[in-house]
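FORM 7B: Structural annotation worksheet

SECTION A. Query
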Amino acid sequence: MPIVKTYKKLSPFQRVIIALILGILSGIFFGEVMGNLEILGNAYIRLLQMTVLPYVLVSIIGGLGRLDSTMAATIGTRALKVILILWGAVMCTLLFLPIAYPNWETAGFFSTSMAQEAVPFNFLELYIPSNIFASLSETIVPAVVLFSLLMGVALINVQNKETLLALTNNVGDSLMKVASYVAKLAPLGIFAISASAAGTLEVAELGRLQVFLWVYIIAAALLAFVFLPLIIHFATPFSYRQVLSTAGEACITALATGTVLVVLPMIIERCKELLAEKEMQCEETNSTVDVMVPTAYSFPSTGTLLGLGFILFSAWYVGSPLGIEQYLSFVIMGALTAFGSMAVAIPFLLNYFDLPADQFQLYLLGSVVTARFATGLAALHGFVATLLVASAVKKKLSWPKLMQAIGIHLGVTFAVMIGAGITLTQLIPYQYEGIQTFEAMEPMKPQVKLETYSEYQPLSEQDLARSRLDVIKERGTIRVGYFSASLPYAFRNSSNKVVGFEIEMIHELARDLDLKVELKYVQNKDRKNRAQLLADGSLDLTIGGQAITPKRALVTAFSKPYTYHTGGLLVLDSRRDDFSSVVDMNQMENLTLGVSGSSYYRHLLEQRFPKANFVTVNDVRQYLKGKVGNIDALVYSAEAASAWSMLYPEYSAIIPKGFKVRAPIGLVLPKGEVEFAEYINTWLTLKQDNGFIQEVYNYWILGQNPKAKQPRWSVANDVLGWGL
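SECTION B. Predicted structure
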């Protein structure tokens, strides 16, 4: 058949490219149904992984063991020099990325990650194995590589090592044969992986990150098609075309599978083939390849380091770009933390540079795209680093031309980023929509009928002598008071409808009791009389995210806590760096903090900040409008502060390091109404157990849409109407 004959004539690289394109097109055409191919893709990945770590083990041990001590030292010093130069060039590249970022305001909902401590980087666990078999079973590659390096170095001076070297060679050749058999399945595996990804990926979800994604892709292209092949072309006997064509299959496979580990044998094989073409293959270069490829994998690669650019994006995103004096710290700390996973490095660096922890959620969202490019770059990095070291070992590497190539790359990157910045500003019309987003929020569920309650109507003496719960049920309504400045617990949306976290709860309570709701706005002048309004029956309960304190509990009753306030600050974006930690705040002269009228929490703050001045702020809006005098920051719940920052994006909600304050939140009830309080507590327990309160929290506090996910758009369903 002509198609079969044509397929056989194609190179492995061409077959993989065609499979990748067909997979993407199939995912777009058929949509989510292609997600069923995920199991086939996973099977292919596991087949690839099957031989990798054993091959890494025997190749490093055998590769080093064949050398004498002098050659081993030569390879080690050359490798270290090459890796450091590559790192430095990539980190310099990252510093040019902010040039391409347009200028726009932003703010977001509260994220639980704001209150989470960064996971510490465990260098020992990653690189020093206590049990090599455990490291092998748990796929801790750096630990396996270190063990293999030590075994290989020890084997250099061992007598009568030929038998062991022959064993490592035979095992390595056998594993390579198995890997070659699996590689023949690459087109099928790549097709399944790409079709599944393209069929299930929600591109619309990445809208907020489009600036970062475009800049990342441009930078990745520059590194892949300018930097890495250019330094090979300039400084070694290999041509630009040879590098890209030979490394192409491994890079595409890594990009499609999402892991570099599976292509290490392929990189080793291709490097040796290219060395043979240039008549540079010998025992020393073969050993260099066997050792360098897995070693380079264990160190931060170009793809890994490029991911650190998210920190620069995040700083720009929140309106607090890193200063020139912070760049050196970024380069050093970025390179060090990149030894671990990005899931550890990014939260650590966000915390280190006093950036909102919830930005990590954006990183995870964007990683759906960036992780693939990172693995492709990492594969090319391993290929290039290995060829550079092998050329250095054969004394065919020109160090001056290597630096010249890096200089050209940085110049090209600078010019491209300027052009990208101009282009993105023109092509991406941006308008801050946080205000509209928040104010347009509608209730999760249909609200029960609302009754007009314009004037306070105390209960009669006869009704006051009865159970409040009986009065409520007989009346058929529950009277609820709410206050101004109660975001996101109770507020009016753009439709002039009273909505919010606790409003949602009240309507659910009324629905369960088959009641109507009488909402009463409690003005500031009546707020001090809240206990009396509850006691005389004018109100049955009040809402507004009220913290439970000992003093308040003396005059009113509270339900059991159903959630907590996380202590934080509302500060101007331009001053957020000044409030990065409690230590930094205590070093400020004439620190003035705005606080609520609660003496309980004020006392705690006075202990935490003994030198600070405190000013009572009863209206958060006045502070945000700059009408409360000279206040450096407002102490406020991080949950509510995040909501206010969406309405006033020039302000940020932050939680300084060491600022650990939690306040229990409950519904405010009349004093002495035991039966009513018991019912409310029982109801809250039931709603916590069935997940309702968590669902409401996710929607009103975290900003997660509870509506069912709509099927992904596809040509088959939405254009042709096939109904797959």
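SECTION C. Observations
The chain has three domains: 2-427, 438-561+666-700, 567-664. The CA atoms of residues 320 and 573 lie 7 Å apart.

SECTION D. Sign-off
Analyst initials: ____
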